[in-house]
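Long-time lurker. I teach an intro course on protein structure, and each term I like to show students one example going from raw sequence to a predicted 3D structure in token notation. This year I'd like something fresh instead of my usual example. Would anyone be willing to generate the tokens for the chain below so I can use it in lecture? Attribution to the forum is fine with me.
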Amino acid sequence: MKDYYSELLTEIEFSEQFDNLEFKSELGENISECYNVRLAESLSREMAKLLGYNEEIAAVLALCKGIVFPPYGKAGMRYIESKMKREGIYLSPEKICLKYLEDLLKSSSLKITEELRDGVIEVFSEESNESEARIVKVIYDILRDIEALQNSGDYITDETDEQTPEDMTKDILYDAISESKAKGRISYSKKLKNMILAVNIKDEEQEELEECAKAVIDDLWNEYRKKGFSGDDIAMNVIFERERQI
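-- Reply from a regular --
Happy to contribute to a lecture. Here you go:
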């Protein structure tokens, strides 16, 4: 199965949808989502390897979880979800991802296996077993919280002031691995949890940027409607579209 997942990784990495991640970011951020997804893939591989799980499966699921990142990130997805609800479109993240994989592999000898399908469903679900999917979810939680911590501007670490963001991320990863080994189950980082509790992280809505996401997504939605797309196809195309400026 290693060859299967290696080939699947290549298919995903050369897809237009993956390429478009380079042109997407959270509102107001300068780092592309492609960087974040690549980092999640690398960290998921490392954690899977050191905990005795299949690192190839973890890498594929990390890309699958990141591929459904829409234009303008969380704000974009919130608005897309509200539009889908109003128009009676019922697309969950796992359905979006599986549809993407089905379309991607139409001209390939690769097919979606039951193992892959179960992994994709699990990586987007609220609950998960001790598996590669759980590793990927823990890694994305860690990266999200590190970003929130760094954006707070007043976090404290036990390390020197010279510690780079990359060093901090690696340090948190190995703490999570140590926690997992100590508890006998895949676990979040105790060190990061304590750091989060020590600061006041504000999740303030940025009205102006939210309006920007709304305007761009409305334009994209109308553009695909004029091209003759409808329902699920409009939503899928908007989600995988490159981020545009107004």
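Some talking points for your students: The radius of gyration is 19 Å. Residues 132-152 form the longest helix (21 residues).
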